[in-house]
Design brief:
- 30% of the residues lie in helices and 6% in strands.
- By secondary structure, it is mainly α.
């Protein structure tokens, strides 16, 4: 990607759900908020979530919710890195309740390929629809 998708400050004013804060963990306290993400998918591909009191360095973040938008990003680890996170020392993914030793490059969703792909291949057989359904029923 050679051009910015949108100036982040301008895009933050276009966040389609002004009453929804994805950094507020209470949003997820009753399970995954499927209706929120359905609305986000319907709003477009690249969405910029405005900064909140919970985001590091008063930064907003990009939200991609559609498969067709995520696939090219996942393949471009030079531009979109969960491990390196651009200029941020802590990486591009923040998980509040991780111990300090766990962070970029140590947790699967905070890794880039090829390490991410290798671990995903090891885990994939245990995360089939049938196995997840059986776990949910237990």
């Amino acid at each position: 990607m050679s051009e910015p998708l949108c100036d982040s400050q301008h895009c933050a004013t276009r966040w389609p759900l002004p009453d929804v804060d994805l950094t507020d963990l209470t949003l997820f306290s009753q399970g995954f908020p499927h209706s929120v993400f359905t609305q986000l998918r319907q709003s477009g591909g690249a969405l910029y979530h405005p900064a909140t009191p919970l985001t590091p360095d008063n930064e907003g973040f990009w939200v991609f919710t559609r498969y067709q938008d995520i696939v090219p990003l996942a393949r471009d680890i030079d531009t979109f890195s969960s491990h390196r996170g651009g200029d941020r020392a802590g990486g591009g993914t923040m998980i509040e309740d991780l111990p300090c030793a766990a962070g970029p490059g140590t947790v699967v969703n905070m890794m880039d390929d090829p390490r991410h792909k290798a671990l995903r291949r090891l885990m994939a057989p245990g995360i089939t629809r049938g196995r997840v359904t059986a776990l949910a029923a237990a």
